[in-house]
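Question (not urgent): is this output format expected?
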Amino acid sequence: MSINISPLASQNLTEWRLLWQDYLDFYQVNLSDDIIQSTWQKVSNSENIKGFGAFVDNKMIGFVHIVIHPNTWNLTDCCYLEDLFVLPEYRNQGIGKKLIEYIYQYAQEHKYNRVYWVTDKNNHQAQQLYNKLANDSGVIQYRKNF
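Got this back:
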């Protein structure tokens, strides 16, 4: 199976929306159409937020979104891997790994000082992959929503 990873473009909107909804369903999150449209605009046409799709035979089967930002501990920007999703029927075939490795390469080419992400503590399947590709930072995330 040949996998192509490329930046999201306007022709990917319909497929991305279907995968994005599957991703939101997995996390049991409901977002308004305004937020979904805004997210699409950001991941497909923003300086600091980027989206990339994984394609097999021109069919989008996964995506990754990153947020580029400055930080107080380095002179160069960081890359936060905010979202990663692969259709269930394509999981355990190395696609998530390829998406992360693509982001690693992208980050190195752009001289970002690190790629980092968080995952749900109960998402053990994803953690099996992440433990092979990066180090658990031991950080606990706290949050207060407004």
